[in-house]
Structure formats: C-alpha cells, structure tokens
C-alpha cells in the first residue's frame, strides 16, 4: 500500500460519521480542499462575470484557474478546450444538439448497451431529430466486456459519431478506449468519451487518447455537482453553439451558456488541488511513464497512479469478499487476473432477494450501497434483471479501507444466511 489511509481520510470531513460509503459510483464524498474553495469563493469573490469591480475580477480569476486546473487534469492542450456545465447529462444534451446539426438523414451513429444512459439517449434523440440511424453495439453478458467484433462491423459503415464509456458505471468494465478511438478515427468517425465512472480511479490524457470529446462529473471525483467537457480546440471553434445573443463567441465561454455555478466550479478547482496533494504526498513511487509531464500535470498523474495502485488492492479484496458469500452472483468480470480491466465497482444479486431489500439491510448496518439500474438501463435490461429490481452495487474509492471491505463481507454473510 502506497497511501496513508489515515492522512487520506482526514481530508474528507464526511468520513467522521459512523458510516461506510460504498455508494461512490453514484457520487463520492467531498474533499476538504473542495469545500474550502467553495467557502472562499462565496466569501471573497461572489460576483457575476466580467465586471469592473474587485469581486468580479477575483471571481473571473478563480474560474480561469479552474479551467487551467481541469486542462491539467485531462492533459488538454489548452484551457480553452475545457467547458463547464451543470452535469455530464446536461452538457451532453447540449453538445449533441450542436453536433447533430451537421448530420443528414440517413447518416449513422453508434451507441453501446454497456453505457450509462446519459451517453446513449442524448445521441438517440438527436438522431431521431435529424433522421439518422442508430447502431447498437452489444456486450458479453458473461463477463461484461464490450463486443469489439460487433463494434468493428458497426464502424465499417463509417458512422458520424461513436459514443463510448471509459468505464461502466454498472459492471465496472474499463473499455480499451485507446484502441476504440483508433478504430473509429481510421474510418473518419468522431468519438465522444464518457469518463464519469473512470475519472476518480485512474489518470486521463486526452492528447494521448486523441479523443474528440471527453466528459466527466466532479461529484464523482470528490468535488461538486459540475460537469466538465473536453473538446478538441478546432472542433469547438467551428461547432455551432446554441446560446443567447450577448454571450461570447470565444472559447470556452461559447458553450458555457448562462451564468455558471461559480462556487461549484471553484469546488472543482479544489478537487484538483486535492489530487495534486495526493501526488506530492504519495506519488513518489509512481513516476514510471510520466517523463512527458511537469508541474501540476505531473503531480496529478502521480496522484492518480497512486490511487489506481491502491484501488487494485481494494478491488481484489472486494472480489474475494463477494465471492465468499453463498448464493451471491457477481455480474461482469470476476477473473482476478483481469482486475486491471475493471474499476472496483461490482454489481450483484443474492439468491432471490430483491436488491432494494439487500441495500436496506446493509444500510441498517451503516453500509451505504446502491440498488436498481443506476441509469445504465440497457445493462440491466440486457442482463434480464431490470423487471426484478436490477442489482446491488458496491463501489470502492481510495478512501475506503480493507477493514470496511471485511465489514461488508460480514454483513452480506448475515444477509445470505437469512
């Protein structure tokens, strides 16, 4: 273990309560640095955009720094490639309208049954509006991995857009996005990456990936309820923006319609500062392959590498714990040798118990988990569990401990035994 869990957990005020948070895939607890940034913004610089007075000038400085910080987190070429919005869903609906403006009747797009609905339905609706065709790519119901042969066949039709998740919020699968992006670009297809589930768990480099768009939500990585979109500069420049007339045509404000959630964006900056702290404190052993980064970008990559290494340990422990419960069935990858191909998010059912009943029993033990479909509706339908309540989902973040995994195991053992 390379993380000092006591030091890590001290950065999260919510962890002081007697609860175990395994509901992280639906939203993590907030880091102290993020809270501090929110408070400081509201006290010192609470004003609207581009005023001539001190608080407005200070507010713009915070927002500019937040754009730079997210550019560093994604390793984007420029802060102008960073667009803030309410959340991933709202931003994707917004961008889908702009992108689909250039589609023609008969054009095709590709979506995946493995994805969160926020990276499916916005594109399906846009396709319906423009008379475009939607091609669905399936996944293997046995191990929860994407069917790459199916994807290759879909790409042979040279679709306008491929929407793909970096990691499944339901089954935990990490998709081979570098390979997928190259497959798509080889036939001239644009790629939109939903990185919401992956962002808390490992480093992201949009330049190395060469994706056209990538989006995440800060409340999934220890910050505020804000969505953050990356788009290649030339694409954002030429793309039509649906906005009111006085709004700027300059990036990134071109797509940041209306008055933004300034204190929320300040909180995103704080979350990035937390990751930077992790890199400085615990990233010294995680510099392999990082020779191309420097400054904050280097510290962020070191921090995410340290987090990823510890979460592999947590993932193994969770898999072992769940595997030991009589009558418990895990959906998705269960091969210990393939833990690097998934995040530490597991969905399961116990015998014939309704998932909500399991979640309620765990909640009585102070263990917080999700049940249902988690907006990955196509996954639960494809697995045949949607009509019977979906699945129970547990997901670890790097502030979780091996002791908490053991307590989860003991509670599930009691539930299984009736």
Q: Roughly how many Å is the radius of gyration?
A: 21 Å
Taking the sheet with the most strands, its summary is: 7 strands, mixed
What's the number of helices? 14
**Quick one: how many beta strands?**
13
N-to-C SSE series? HEHHEHEHEHEHEHEEHHHEEHEEHEH
CATH superfamily of the largest domain: Type I PLP-dependent aspartate aminotransferase-like (Major domain)
> Which stretches are low in confidence, meaning pLDDT under 50 for 5 or more residues running?
none
C-alpha geometry? globular
As laid out across the biggest beta sheet, the strand order is 2-8-7-6-5-3-4
Instruction: Just name the CATH architecture of the largest domain.
Output: 3-Layer(aba) Sandwich
Structural class: alpha/beta
Please indicate the percent range of residues in DSSP E strands (runs of 2 or more). 5-15%
Q: Alpha-carbon distance between the termini?
A: 35 Å
Number of domains: 2
Overall pLDDT level: 97
CATH class of the largest domain: Alpha Beta
- Stated plainly, the CATH topology of the largest domain is called Aspartate Aminotransferase, domain 2
Helical content stands at 40-55%
Compact description:
With 418 residues, the chain is an alpha/beta fold. Helix content is 41%, strand content 13%.
Structural topology:
Elements: H1 5-9, E1 20-21, H2 32-44, H3 54-74, E2 82-85, H4 88-100, E3 108-112, H5 121-130, E4 133-137, H6 148-155, E5 161-165, H7 177-185, E6 190-194, H8 206-209, E7 213-217, E8 227-231, H9 233-238, H10 262-282, H11 295-323, E9 328-331, E10 345-350, H12 355-364, E11 367-368, E12 370-372, H13 377-382, E13 391-395, H14 402-417
Parallel strand pairs: 1-11, 3-4, 3-5, 5-6, 6-7
Antiparallel strand pairs: 2-8, 7-8, 9-10, 10-13, 12-13
């Amino acid at each position: 273990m390379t993380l000092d869990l006591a030091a890590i957990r001290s950065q999260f005020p919510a962890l002081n309560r007697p609860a175990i948070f395994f509901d992280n895939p639906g939203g993590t607890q907030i880091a102290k640095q993020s809270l501090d940034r929110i408070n400081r913004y509201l006290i010192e610089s609470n004003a609207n955009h581009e005023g001539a007075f001190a608080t407005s000038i200070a507010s713009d400085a915070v927002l500019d720094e937040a754009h730079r910080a997210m550019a560093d987190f994604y390793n984007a070429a420029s802060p102008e490639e960073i667009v803030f919005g309410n959340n991933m869903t709202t931003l994707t609906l917004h961008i889908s309208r702009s992108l689909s403006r250039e589609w023609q009747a008969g054009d095709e797009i590709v979506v995946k049954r493995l994805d969160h609905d926020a990276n499916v339905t916005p594109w399906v609706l846009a396709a319906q509006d423009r008379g475009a065709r939607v091609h669905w790519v399936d996944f293997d119901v046995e191990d929860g991995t994407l069917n790459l042969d199916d994807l290759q066949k879909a790409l042979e039709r040279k679709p306008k857009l491929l929407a793909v998740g970096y990691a499944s919020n339901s089954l935990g699968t990490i998709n081979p996005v570098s390979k997928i992006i190259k497959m798509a670009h080889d036939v001239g297809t644009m790629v939109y990456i939903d990185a919401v589930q992956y962002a808390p768990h490992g480093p992201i480099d949009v330049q190395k990936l060469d994706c056209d768009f990538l989006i995440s939500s800060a409340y999934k990585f220890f910050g505020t309820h804000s969505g953050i979109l990356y788009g290649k500069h030339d694409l954002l420049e030429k793309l039509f923006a649906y906005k009111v007339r006085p709004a700027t045509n300059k990036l990134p404000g071109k797509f940041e319609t209306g008055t933004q959630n300034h204190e929320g964006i300040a909180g995103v900056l704080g979350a990035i500062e937390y990751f930077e702290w992790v890199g400085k404190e615990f990233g010294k052993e995680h510099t392999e392959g990082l020779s191309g980064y420097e400054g904050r970008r280097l510290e962020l990559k070191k921090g995410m590498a340290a987090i990823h290494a510890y979460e592999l340990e947590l993932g193994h422990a969770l898999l072992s714990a769940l595997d030991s419960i009589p009558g418990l069935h895990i959906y998705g990858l269960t091969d210990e040798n393939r833990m690097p191909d998934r995040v530490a998010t597991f969905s399961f059912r116990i015998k014939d118990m309704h998932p909500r009943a399991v979640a309620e029993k765990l909640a009585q033990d102070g263990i917080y988990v999700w049940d249902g479909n988690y907006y990955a509706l196509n996954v639960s339908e494809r697995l045949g569990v949607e009509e019977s309540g979906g699945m129970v989902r547990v997901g670890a973040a790097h502030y979780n401990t091996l002791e908490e995994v053991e307590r989860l195991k003991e509670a599930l053992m009691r539930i299984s035994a009736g």
